Amino acid sequence: MNEMFLMKLGEVVLKGANKRQFENRLRHNVRRRMEPFGNFDVYILQSTVYIQPMDDQADLDGAWEACHSIFGVVSLCRCRPCEKNVDAIYDAVEAYLGDDLDMAESFKVESKRSDKAFPLTSIALSQEIGGRLAEAHPDCLVDVHHPAYTVYVEVRDLAAYVHGPAEPGAGGLPTGVGGRGMCLLSGGIDSPVAAYMMARRGMEIECVHFFSYPYTSQLAKDKVLELARLVTKYCGRMTVNVVPFTEIQEAIRDNCPEEYFTLIMRRFMMEISQRIGRNDGCGALITGENLGQVASQTMEAMAVTGAVVDMPIFMPLVGMDKEQIVTIARHIGTMDTSILPYEDCCTVFTPKHPKTKPTLGQVEHAERKLDREALIQRAIEGVEKVTVRYADAPLL
Ligand code: ATP
Ligand code: MG
Q: What is the pTM of this model?
């Protein structure tokens, strides 16, 4: 089948070295994402990614679906390449899009000519192809203002390409151009959405999950790994660092005033995440925090938990309403898994009256009996690094 995909690059008018970096990264990401679907040639010319199957074995439908979740792309289409002459272009349209035209009430042809050596102007080419199509499809009327169907003809450097309407791409920036971030991933609704949002801005994502066996179950851990797997649909394979957190939680319970439990626990999470992240080349932490959602998400509480780290903390959901977050969670397919009932370590030893307006001095005083450094060291020594790929079997 003589078919391939074109994807148009997104965002800003990129220049110079940035543009090269952007394109190299995107090409790398696309190649990797096409791997499970067969042999594809992937190249970028004139701000367009060309994805061409190299043999008949390629799974075009699978590859096409995967293309919709690659960041850095504004729009994409399946197309048929052909020689750069009017007869070949007409034949390609007829063979590739003839059935669509038969089903439409009206149509127009829109041509673009980036190869200025092509003898016809865009308008003349549209008229010529449109005229021939109108004769061949008498029930489909020409309507240049409000056509039910548009035939696109692009005369480019290597070939001409014909296609129907394009579809929207995943938007954002290619994963990897924004550096690497460590996302604190719980089993809730918010943190997978936060990971997706930052991946969409070009960040490569690594995750850390704090796991309090036996207070939280193996199922709770599988749920988190499954959420990570769902997010890799967008950001590519990732590492999830599973951190044993039981000892720290018990030490907090036994040595600290109850109203500070959650805050102290979150300070450990931040500090451990930063240390693992720094080791793995991360330049920022990412959380699903949302102002005012729970007691530990007041401005004062965030200041106290953020005080233990010096990496920037990205909280892409901080100003959103729950409804907006849920809409994104449904869109990316994590919602149904997030609402499965398995408990998170945050719900273990939850204080009845958590402190909502803590000061740093109060919290430091509340945790003074803990040997923070030794607890952190032991937790980091116990980290299990799990590699998660979208092609892995679902865990739940
Ligand atoms: P979420 O829906 O992401 O769980 P939440 O609204 O339940 O968020 P909290 O439980 O206060 O809020 O957690 C705030 C953030 O802290 C989470 O979004 C996540 O980034 C991080 N976090 C919470 N629990 C864990 C955990 N067990 N492991 C790793 N990160 C966690
Ligand atoms: Mg939570």
A: 0.92
